[in-house]
Amino acid sequence: MGRESRPARLATAVFAAALVALSVVNGAGGAQAASARPASVTALSIPGELDGVAATSPTNAWAVGYLVSRNSKPDTLIMAHWDGVNWKRVTVPGFPYGQLLAVAAVSKNDVWAVGENESYVPGYNRPPFGLVLHWNGKAWRPVPIAFAVQAIPTAVTATAKDVWVALSADTDELLHETGGHWYVVPVTQSGSLNDPLTIAMSSPKSGWLGGTNVSIDSNGATAFEWHWNGASWKHIPVKVHDQFSVINAMAGLPGGTVWAVGQEAIDPNNGNTFGPLTLRWNGKAWLQVPVNIQGADDLFGVAPIPAGTAWAVGTMDDNLDVGALVARWTGTAWKQAPSPAGDWADILYAVTATSVSDAWAVGEINTPLGSAGFTTVILHWNGTTWS
Q1: Cβ burial 81-106 (10 Å sphere, 16+ → b, else e)
Q2: What is the DSSP string of 189-256?
Q3: Which residues, including other chains, have CB under 8 Å from residue 3's CB and lie 6 or more apart?
Q4: Measuring CA to CA, how many Å separate 7 from each of 92, 154, 248, 330?
Q5: Which of 100, 137, 276, 372 has its CA 20 to 30 Å from the CA of residue 223?
């Protein structure tokens, strides 16, 4: 895969045929008893792509994304909710158009989603502009501050007391909600921040902003990290094998450990050879951790597993025709986890876990030859397999 941002790579995506995969859970003892659990539809397969997923329990998860429309029409938001039985599409009143890029869930009644708005909002400039949405347990509501900033939100992290929103390229600011008020927080940096940006906040006094930095005096780019200490953002050096590295996602684990994942050049002298990048913050420094998975190409999402390990998802090399990449940190190494094989364009963009036996990963699959476009993919981990 190349070094383009996700929206640029997928700008040609169009409508695709949709199929729904069913996973039926039967009652114990062969024949399905009258008191058996209802069938669970653990997949959502519709035209478009899913870029974010967040869950708080086995009966509460959200997935977000978008469908790139044809004929210069606005893109269409995709938002879906898992209630323990089915994935169901959800609409946002007044905001049908745009792209949702990330979602963060604090509780069943406290969820945040961010992206780009392409719906007209009276009193503001014509779209596109930023979109921040909040779920209060009953409805999704827009946050007006996002309509006023000159950037697109690309990532969000939230706790019960704080919400942080990372903005798109060439922006030296973040959005921060605390105590019921929104603030614009500057990030002092040299060079130009470039997509993608990702953010992970473990507490009001500890958080990370990561991504790619384009230096002022060269055309190169390298991974960067900033740390929030409760008062300001401070740059923390990152040592990587490949100078031109990209950080796509971050996640914090209990105890203060943080993972950052992305892509680097396997051979810095050959711009066509890439492999996954993983960095681990051990409390004192960022250390690069090798990913010894043959054919692994890029990592777009990472999430902690409550047991203290982590999931990472992405894509395999285009030429291997083996589908998306799912990897698990065992505590000593990254190991590939079996995932359903598919077309070479299979990509997983995000992952979340509520327990060692409950996790979700979302992304896209290229439709069969002869029909252009992408179709959404949702995979579920039941403790034994991804399906």
Answers
A1: ebeeeebeebebeebebbbbbbbbbb
A2: -SSEEEEEEEEEEEETTEEEEEEEEE-TTSS-EEEEEEEE-SS-EEEE----SSSS-EEEEEEE-TTS
A3: 221, 244, 246, 263
A4: 21, 11, 13, 32
A5: 100
Q: How would you classify the pairing of strands 129-135 and 140-142?
A: antiparallel
The number of residues in the chain equals: 387
**Cα 338 from Cα 272, distance rounded (Å):** 26
Top-tier CATH class for 42-381: mainly beta
pTM of the model as a whole: 0.85
Residues of the chain with pLDDT under 70: 1-41, 124-125, 169-172, 188-196, 213-221, 267-272, 318-322, 340-345, 367-372
Q: How far is CA 13 from CA 296, 348, 374, in A?
A: 23, 16, 6
Q: Which residues contact 277 (CB under 8 A, 6 or more apart)?
A: 223, 240, 242, 245, 246, 247, 260, 261, 262, 263, 264, 288, 291, 299
Query: Both tokens of residue 320?
Result: 């291997």
What are the structure tokens assigned to 151, written together?
A: 């950037």
